[in-house]
Amino acid sequence: MESAAYLTEPETNGHREVGEIAVADITGEPIAAAPAAFHLTRGRYRSTGLRILELRVDVDGPGTLRKVSGDFFTSSGSTTSYAGSFIVDAPAVTVSPQQVVIRGQGRFSGPTPFLFPFVEVTIPRRPVVQPRAAAVVRFIRPPNFVGVTYVCSFRSAYFRTVQWEQDSVTGKVPFVSYNTGSLPQPPGSPARVLTVPRAFAEAGIDLVVGGAANVLGDSQNGWTIAELHAAMQTNFSLWRNVPQWMVWLLVASRFEGNPGVRGIMFDAQDAFQRQGCAVFYDLIQGMDPESQRAQLRTYVHELGHAFNLLHSWQKDLATPPAPLGPNRGFGDLSWMNYPQNYDPDPAPPNPEGAAAYWRAFPFSFTAAELVHLRHGFYRDVIMGANPFGRGAADIDPDLFDEPVVDESGLVLDLRATKPTYAYGEPVVVELRLSTTDLRGRSVHEYLHPDYELVSVAIRQPSGRTVLYRPLMRRCVDAEATTRLHPERNPAVYASAYVGYGQDGHYFQQPGTYQLRAAYVAADGSRIVSPVLRTVVRHPRSESDEQVAELMLGEEQGTLFALRGSDSPSLRAGNDALQEVVKHHGKHPLAVYARMVQGLNAEHEFKYLTADKAALKVRSPEPKEAIGRLTAVVKATTEGNGVDDITLNMVMRRLARAHARDGDRKQSDGVLNSLVERFDSGVYRPHVIETVRRQVEETRHSIDDEFGG
């Protein structure tokens, strides 16, 4: 542990104004007597308001890294969302008797350059007998243009606070503490009793024991990753599949996949990683000092992975790669190294291995790891955010992030309309907005992303994340609302084709995709859906490849997004869809080509003549529409068609085509069949009621247009 260190004070020649007092390290333990009269310029500060800054100041006191960092949050309605981060790597620090001023250029998260890149933090100095002063933070653009100013009150001497819940299986006793003086240790490293929270406290992290300590039944054959993940979801009382400063550790018996595994951070496969880890008691048990020391290291090591720290020798595999320590990381004296791998210098006769590691290990993280723990960008560190090993966000946090606080009473769900999609198949998703508020909530019903009150982010198999951007933007009246109630009207729905937009095709390669939607409520609250994982299958035959190529053209994508068009600029796209119907009519994807053709034929099409002198109208073609749309309905009833929300739209358009063709009896029959399909006992009453209302509205519209 380092002795107390203080900033130089040229204005006062380094002299303090008051006599010596006993100072403490960040954990509260006294270190030494030092001439100090003022609070350390160190710790976590936070502002209030609609735009929140959580500031971390690390320029004073023991083990200082001489850095300043912060996270931005936005408060809108009943929600608070993460908005970005910054770090000042090497600030200039000026100390006077009145205040400490910290200045430097910030490094910001996200690809967009920050318009006010210089950061200035001013903190008045206060005697230790007085409360700490607030920090004033200004963002500046040279030469001296001041942007936003924040006033951040002092919150904690720790840089971050994490709730830690620990469970164990029957008969396995969790680790409690280890006295570092029990065995030989490096000169200058003070003997002290370390618990797991205290080990993190020395790193500046407040690891608070939270939740209920459960005792689980053991697995005779050991524990698999799937079992561990299921145990976390069942027993982690603080668990939610969202980014949050909460972590779970299970003291299990042994790992089924490899009995030599001491511990594992198992939560590294789904969309919300690094929330849980486990240690395996059978391999690390023991009450002797060596065993207790090894248990402490294993616990801290696995929790370190939950903070997104890699093994010492693997840091160059992160995204982006991080510098390796001595001897490609094997020489790191860190919780994240393996004692048996320790090798500070490959040239003999330098000591190596576990014995050399423990003789030199000061029970700490490396300086680079401390920078990550204290000052890493929010999503890189917080559990449940960026995947394990990803050190820099590759997405806009506003598109793919979970609100930190959500008291809106609304829930947004996003689901795929099919278990998987064929290569080239239009990807349609269903959005569902519901309420959990027993009093009910008023919402707008514009769930379709084309209205731009709902956004959909798509993470492609390559790792690139894009925002679905519709070809057409529809301005709507957000004040037009409906009342949701958990019993009477619990949800509203929408079906959206998100396969093509301003950036082209979003699902143009086979593989696994992750989608997430965000709904902006009338009061500004931002409601985020869980992540939806869906798969685009590889083509299984030559015919599949041929049809996919015909479906994935740019013009075809536009036709799907527009539900058909006669535009001359899309002639090649229409020709491709016609080829699908004509030469691959029995292929499952032909139903989508027929749907676009039928919807286009059902209504008129207006266009300007070549000289733009006259407006021409192509009249509806009801017989063409009837033939195409009837085929879509038939394929869907046979289980190889479109989703039910799309079918609802198709059948109402088919009813209009029959009415336009003069067959009102057939028109009424299609609408009656639509109601019967949804009134089959599969759907909840409010869904059936919505379909009935839509059918009656269609009847009235047909009566008005074609006569009752």
Enumerate the strands of the largest sheet in spatial order, edge to edge or round the barrel: 3-4-5-6-8-9-10-11
Strand content: 25-35%
Span between N and C termini? 88 Å
* Structural class based on helices, strands and sheet pairing: alpha+beta
Radius of gyration: 31 Å
Coarse shape: elongated
Mean pLDDT, to the nearest integer, reads: 85
Give a quick rundown of the structure.
The chain contains 16 helices and 34 strands. The protein has 708 residues and is α+β, with helices and mostly antiparallel strands.
Describe it for me?
- The chain has 16 helices and 34 strands.
- The strands form 9 sheets. Strands 3-4-5-6-8-9-10-11 form an 8-stranded antiparallel β-barrel. Strands 12, 15, 16, 17, 18 and 19 form a 6-stranded mixed β-sheet that branches. Strands 24, 25, 30, 31 and 32 form a 5-stranded antiparallel β-sheet that branches.
- Strand 10 and strand 11 (145-156) form a beta hairpin.
- The model is unreliable at 1-35 and 391-399 (pLDDT under 50).
What key phrases describe this protein's structure?
single chain, 708 residues, 6-stranded mixed sheet, 34 strands, disordered N terminus
